[in-house]
Amino acid sequence: xxxxxxxxxxxxxxxxxxxxxxxxxxxxxxxxxxxxxxxxxxxxxxxxxxxxxxxxxxxxxxxxxxxxxxxxxxxxxxxxxxxxxxxxxxxxxxxxxxxxxxxxxxxxxxxxxxxxxxxxxxxxxxxxxxxxxxxxxxxxxxxxxxxxxxxxxxxxxxxxxxxxxxxxxxxxxxxxxxxxxxxxxxxxxxxxxxxxxxxxxxxxxxxxxxxxxxxxxxxxxxxxxxxxxxxxxxxxxxxxxxxxxxxxxxxxxxxxxx
Length: 258
Fold this sequence. Notes:
Mean pLDDT: 78
Number of helices: 9
Order of helices and strands: HHHEEHHHHHH
Number of strands: 2
Distance between the termini: 16 Å
Low-confidence stretches: none
Strand order of the largest sheet: 1-2
Structural class: mainly alpha
């Protein structure tokens, strides 16, 4: 499993590097060059020269790219111009860190929601295939795969944010910074995470639930499961200590394929 995770991580890094090369190359050959990525509403030529010097865009495209890549490696994503009276250059890293923290928290919450719900639904459907609740789960998975995520987001916002006014639809700040007490901060961030986390994980719940159901169903048909039942072990022990333990690794590996 560790080898699989390492390969996936290296694949993501390779894809990210290729995308940076493509985007930087397209920006270089387009009108205006890489400067279009750093627009400046300058009023004098001095502002433009100063901006190019700060962002090191006054060299060749190849040198600009490797300079940018070196800076990114050390956590420096450059500067961007913002105008509040006079021209002010803000650090891109300072702008990205709060967004990165919020995005990382959102992805982690959605992944946790996906794993818990998928395991519960898939395991129940595998253990009791003829139950009425299993038919409801199958219907839910069918509907789940036919509704796009943006439609789910709109429906959730219309119901819980606009109509019922129970949950916010925007306005989340950096989750690591708070002025109030911890629990008030925690509950506020939790309210902001519910709708986007459900939306982000909703389209993947069906495929993960189906994978868990097939995996657990296949394990329950194995000879060692029949042997464990013949020894008089209860169904709960057989499921928890034999079926789920052996099905945990392939099910978790499927999370990274969803």
